[in-house]
Amino acid sequence: MRMRKFTALLMTAVMAIGVTAGSVFAAPSKTAKVTSPDATVAAVDYTGIKDDDGVKTAIKTEADTGSIDAFIEKLNLVTGPAADSAKSIAGQIKGASVIANFFDLKSSSLNVTLNVTLPSDASVDNIRLVHFSTARYVFELVTPTSVDASKGEIKATFQDLSPVAIIKLGSSSTTATSTSSVSPKTGVSNTWVFFGLAAVAAAGAAVVVFKKERV
User: Fold this and answer.
1) Which of 15-24, 149-158, 198-207 has the highest mean pLDDT?
2) What is the pLDDT of residues 28-47, one digit of tens each?
3) What are phi and psi of 156, to 5 degrees?
4) Which of these ranges, 30-39, 66-75, 192-201, has the smallest mean pLDDT?
5) For the residues of the chain, what is the DSSP string, one character each?
6) Beta 127-133 vs 138-142: how paired, if at all?
């Protein structure tokens, strides 16, 4: 009887902690909103992107999660005509952070101005536009012609327009597994907090059960 009570209380504590953990480790939210004075910004249009070569999966993964790590993983799985460019991009964006998830960009001009909240140290040297050309069917990194962090303004020239994501490159010492659009360090530290809470809850349950049995 005593063991059954202990087990029930322990399971309740673990379930409660599991619910809390689920909310912390949920998929990251969408990143910064992008606007443009001379282009239409909208959700990704997958017209012209194949379903069976991994390109759509890679773009959709980043658009939905904002995770650089997940995007890199999917890029390395791309097959067909876009495979080489996908793997090249995957190698170049390790350690980057996402400023804006993939969005669709349409304009009559290929010289586009984008407005988005930028980190204070944003510059032409570390801001890149990840572009997938549906016309040429390749992934590419576009370096902006200018970046003004105070105005949140990026100017860039494209060969053609289709899905675009905005990223900030990491330092040379940063690895793909240590940087993403959400800080992984927060998740790791919280994991240990949850384990600690589980241990405390279990110990408390045991004390209550044994106390009741002795009375």
Assistant:
1) 149-158
2) 345 679 999 999 999 999 99
3) -150, 155
4) 192-201
5) -HHHHHHHHHHHHHHHHHHHHHHHSSPPPP----B-SSSEEES---TT--SSSSHHHHHHHHHHH--HHHHHHHHTT--GGGHHHHHHHHHHSTT-EEEEEEEEEE-S-SEEEEE----TT--TTTEEEEEEETTTTEEEEE--SEEETTTTEEEEE-SS--EEEEEE---TT--TTT-SSS-HHHHHHHHHHHHHHHHHHHHHHHHHHHHHHH-
6) antiparallel
**Does the pTM exceed 0.85?**
no
Q: Scan for tokens 């282009």, then name that residue.
A: 39
In DSSP notation, 117-129 reads: ---TT--TTTEEE
**Residue given tokens 């993403």 in the structure block:** 180
Q: Which residue do the tokens 């012609």 mark?
A: 145
Q: Mutual orientation of helices 68-75 and 83-92 as an angle, nearest 10°?
A: 150
Measuring CA to CA, which residue among 102, 72, 110 is closest to residue 90? Answer: 72
